[in-house]
Amino acid sequence: MKTVRLCTCNSNYEAELLKDALEKEGIDCILGNQNMSALFGPMIAAFSGVDVFVFEDDGERAVEIYKKCLN
Q1: Which pLDDT score, from 0 to 100, does residue 38 have?
Q2: Residue 53 contacts by C-beta under 8 Å, 6 or more apart in sequence?
Q3: Residues 13, 49, 5, CA angle at the centre, nearest 5°?
Q4: Which whole-number Å values give the CA distances from 70 to 1, 2, 56, in the listed order?
Q5: 31 — phi, psi (to 5°)?
Q6: CA distance 4 to 30
Q7: What is the reported pTM?
Q8: CB 48, CB 15: distance < 8 Å
Q9: Average pLDDT in the chain
Q10: How much of the chain, in percent, has pLDDT values that exceed 90?
Q11: Which residues contact 15 (CB under 8 A, 6 or more apart)?
């Protein structure tokens, strides 16, 4: 299955909150750039952040969860 980028979070903490919310709804996700964010903290967030990827088939449900979780 193909993955798509759901969003880019500003911190590991924010990405982990979203990941937990997605997994509670049965949506698997992958976090990218997580190590860089942990290593450099807020400094790197301005350049990359932590990418959250989901499977394409779960994209619409994931967007709804994202809106509820991070707003």
Answers
A1: 55
A2: 3, 4, 5, 6, 29, 30, 31, 32
A3: 100
A4: 26, 24, 20
A5: -100, 130
A6: 10
A7: 0.81
A8: no
A9: 85
A10: 56
A11: 9, 31, 34, 37, 50, 52
Is pLDDT at 1 greater than 70 in this prediction?
yes
Please choose, from the candidates 43, 40, 38, 46, the residue with its C-alpha nearest in 3D space to the C-alpha of residue 15.
38
Residues in the chain: 71
Bridge partners, 5 (sequence order): 53
Distance separating alpha carbons of residues 54 and 1, to the nearest angstrom: 10
Residue 50, amino acid: V
Q: For residue range 39-53, what is the model confidence (pLDDT) as tens digits?
A: 555 555 556 688 999
Written as one letter, the residue type at 35 is N
The encoded tokens of residue 1 equal 């299955």
**At which residue do the structure tokens 């290593």 appear?**
39
The DSSP code for 33 is: S
What pLDDT, in 10s, does the model give residues 15-44?
999 999 999 999 999 998 866 555 555 555
